[in-house]
Design goal:
heterodimer, A: Rossmann fold, six-stranded mixed sheet, four-stranded antiparallel sheet, 33% helix, B: 320 residues, mainly alpha, ABC transporter involved in vitamin B12 uptake, BtuC, 13 helices, ATP binding (chain A), AAA+_ATPase (chain A), P-loop_NTPase (chain A)
C-alpha cells in the first residue's frame, strides 16, 4: 500500500510564508480534497507533493522516501498530475494525447501491448473511445477535460493529483468528472484534489485538509473537517450545512 | 511514418544526383567515371558542396523542429535563439581581423560565437528553465550580435574586408571544399545526436511545463541538451555556409501534414527534408541564369519571407 505524506512541510516564496508546518498522511483508495480560501496554500501543497516545488523546510514523502530525490520516471509512474492549465500546444488526436500519459513507462516512442491496453482503458473510463481519432482542437471544453484526465489515467499512477479539475466545467461535466475520480479511488489509487467549491468538495471527499494561511486548520475524514465552525475559521464565512430531503449534503455560505 | 522517411531518402538521393550534375558546366551521368576529365569537377567541387549542403540543411531542419517543439511555437527558427547571429558575429570577427586565411579559424570563431551566445542564454535564463525568459533573452542577444556585426562592417579596415564580410553574411555554399566538410561533419553529427535525444521530452512539453515535469521531464537537462545541440548544429552550419535563414522554419511545417503534429514524429523527417530542400535550392541557384551565382542565403530568404507571412496570415485568427 502506497503512502504519500508531508511532514513539517514549510514553503517560503519571496519572503512570504506559503506553507507552515503542514503534516498529513494521505490515504490510498480515498478522495482527499485540499480546501481553503484563496492563497491558503492548496496549490502549493499539491505542487510540493508532485515535486514541482522544493519545500523550504520539511519533506514530502512517497513510501518514506523524499519525493524530491526519487528517480524522475519512477516518481512519474507513481504520481500523476492533472494541472489546472488545459494546454495542448500541438493539434494531435485524442489517442495520441492519451498515449502521452504512457511516457513515464515507455523508453522511446514504441508503445507495447500493455501501453495500448492502458490507453484503451483510460479512453473507455472517460467515455472518449468514440472520440479517439478526433483532433484535440475540435473537442468541446468538457470533452477536452475528459481527454486530459484520460491522459493521466493512462499512466495508471498510484496517486492522482488534480488542481481544480472542475474549473470551467458546467454542472453536468463537473458531476461526470467527480464520478470518474471516485472510480479511480474505488480502484485503490489515492486521489488528491484542490477544490475551491465547498459544496462539490463535500459531495466527493472522503477526507479533507483545511488550510488557512499555509497552516492546517483541520484534517481527517470530511465529516469531521467540513463543519460550520472550522469552515468559519478557515474561510471567514458563515455557512449552513444541511441535508436535502433526498439525503444529499450541502454547504451553503450565508454571510461573513 | 517510416514510409515518409524512405520517400524523403529517395528524393534526397535524386536531388544529390541533380546537385552533382548541375552548374555552369553540366556534367551528365556518363561523365562521372574517373577517366573523364570532368570528374575532377565532381570530386573536388560538386561532391563536397553537395555533402555540405545536405549537412547544413539537415542541421537547420532538425534544429528548427526541435526549437518549435521546445518553444511550442510554430514560428520559431534558429535565428530566434540568437545562435545564428552569435555564430555570424564570431565569423565576422575572424574576417575583420583577417584570420580567415587559416581554414580552421573562421569555423572556430563561429562556433565560439554560437557557444558564447548559448552560454549567455544559459546564464540569463538557464536557472529557471522558463520559456518566456529564454525567448526574450534570445531575441535580445540576436539584436546585440546583429549590431556588433554592423559595427564590424562599418569599422572595417579596408573596403575589401567589408565586402568580404557582407558577401559571407549573405550565405552560400560556393567554392566549398573537403576541408569545410571535415570541419562541419563531426560537429553536426554530434549536435544532431544530442537533439535526437530530446524527442520524448518535447512530446511531454505538448501538455505544458508543469505536466511535462510531472511526467518525469527534467527541464534543466532538456534545456542543456537543446542549447548544446543547437549551438553545435547551427554554429557549424553558419561557419560553413554563412547565414541561411528560414530552413528551420519552413521544413517542419512541410513535414507536419505528412508525419503528424507530435514533436518527436517530425524530428527525422525535418532533418531529411532540410537536407532535401537545401540540396535542391543549391542546385537551382547554380542553374539560375544570373550573371554571378545567386546567393543561396538570399534565395532562401526570398522563399522564406513570404512563407513566414503566409503562416502568420493563416494563424492570424488564432493569434488575435
Amino acid at each position: 500500500m502506497s503512502i504519500l505524506a508531508v511532514d513539517h512541510l514549510g514553503l517560503t516564496l519571496g519572503g512570504n510564508v506559503v506553507l507552515d508546518d503542514v503534516r498529513y498522511a494521505f490515504r490510498p483508495g480515498r478522495v482527499t480534497t485540499l480546501l481553503g480560501a484563496n492563497g491558503a496554500g492548496k496549490s502549493s501543497l499539491l505542487a510540493c507533493l508532485a515535486a514541482l516545488r522544493v519545500p523550504t523546510r520539511g519533506v514530502a514523502t512517497l513510501d518514506g522516501g523524499d519525493v524530491q530525490t526519487l528517480d524522475r520516471r519512477a516518481r512519474a509512474r507513481a504520481i500523476g498530475l492533472l494541472p489546472q492549465a488545459a494546454d495542448v500546444h500541438w493539434d494531435i488526436d485524442v489517442a495520441t494525447l492519451v498515449g502521452l500519459g504512457r511516457l513515464p513507462h515507455t523508453g522511446r516512442w514504441s508503445m507495447t501491448a500493455a501501453d495500448r491496453a492502458a490507453v484503451d482503458q483510460a479512453l473507455a473510463a472517460t467515455d472518449m473511445t468514440v472520440l479517439a481519432g478526433r483532433s484535440v482542437e475540435r473537442l468541446s471544453g468538457g470533452e477536452r477535460g475528459r481527454a486530459l484526465l484520460a491522459r493521466v489515467l493512462a499512466g495508471q499512477p498510484d496517486w492522482l493529483l488534480a488542481d481544480e479539475p472542475l474549473a470551467n466545467l458546467d454542472p453536468a461535466h463537473q458531476l461526470d468528472v467527480l464520478a470518474r475520480l471516485r472510480d479511480v479511488a474505488a480502484g485503490g489509487s489515492g486521489v488528491i484534489l484542490v477544490l475551491h467549491d465547498l459544496h462539490l468538495a463535500s459531495r466527493v471527499a472522503d477526507d479533507a485538509v483545511l488550510l488557512k494561511d499555509g497552516r492546517v486548520v483541520a484534517a481527517g475524514p470530511a465529516s469531521t473537517v467540513l463543519t460550520a465552525p472550522l469552515i468559519a475559521e478557515a474561510y471567514g464565512v458563515e455557512v449552513e450545512i444541511g441535508v436535502t430531503p433526498a439525503g444529499h449534503r450541502f454547504i451553503l455560505p450565508i454571510g461573513r | 511514418m517510416t514510409r515518409l522517411n524512405l520517400g524523403l531518402l529517395v528524393a534526397l538521393l535524386l536531388a544529390a544526383c541533380l546537385s552533382v550534375a548541375a552548374g555552369k558546366v553540366w556534367v551528365p551521368l556518363d561523365a562521372w567515371s574517373a577517366a573523364d576529365p570532368r570528374s575532377i569537377i565532381i570530386v573536388e567541387l560538386r561532391l563536397p558542396r553537395m555533402i555540405l549542403g545536405m549537412l547544413v540543411g539537415a542541421a537547420l531542419g532538425l534544429s528548427g523542429a526541435v526549437m518549435q517543439g521546445y518553444l511550442r511555437n510554430p514560428l520559431a527558427d534558429p535565428g530566434l535563439f540568437g545562435v545564428s547571429a552569435g555564430a555570424a558575429f564570431g565569423a565576422v570577427l575572424a574576417l575583420y581581423f583577417g584570420y580567415a586565411a587559416q581554414i580552421w579559424l573562421l569555423p572556430a570563431f563561429a562556433l565560439a560565437g554560437a557557444a558564447g551566445t548559448m552560454g549567455l542564454l544559459a546564464v540569463i535564463a538557464g536557472r529557471s528553465g522558463s520559456l518566456i525568459l529564454f525567448t526574450l533573452a534570445g531575441m535580445i542577444l540576436t539584436s546585440i550580435a546583429g549590431s556588433l556585426t554592423s559595427l564590424a562592417i562599418s569599422l572595417a579596415p579596408t573596403p575589401f574586408v567589408s565586402s568580404q564580410i557582407v558577401t559571407w553574411l549573405l550565405g552560400a555554399l560556393t567554392d566549398r571544399s573537403w576541408d569545410d566538410v571535415k570541419v562541419a561533419l563531426p560537429l553536426i553529427l554530434l549536435g544532431g545526436a544530442i537533439l535526437a535525444t530530446t524527442g520524448r521530452s518535447l512530446d511531454a512539453l505538448t501538455l505544458g511545463e508543469q505536466a511535462a515535469r510531472s511526467m518525469g521531464v527534467d527541464p534543466r537537462r532538456l534545456q542543456l541538451a537543446v542549447i548544446a545541440g543547437i549551438a553545435l548544429t547551427v554554429g557549424a552550419s553558419v561557419a560553413s555556409a554563412g547565414v541561411i535563414g528560414f530552413v528551420g522554419l519552413i521544413v517542419p511545417h512541410m513535414v507536419r501534414p505528412l508525419a503528424g503534429n507530435r514533436p518527436s514524429a517530425i524530428l527525422l523527417p525535418s532533418a531529411l527534408g532540410g537536407a532535401l530542400l537545401l540540396t535542391l535550392a543549391d542546385s537551382l541557384v547554380r542553374l539560375a541564369p544570373t550573371v554571378s551565382e545567386l546567393r543561396l542565403g538570399i534565395a532562401m530568404s526570398m522563399l522564406g519571407g513570404p512563407f513566414f507571412l503566409y503562416l502568420l496570415l493563416r494563424m492570424r485568427r488564432k493569434l488575435a
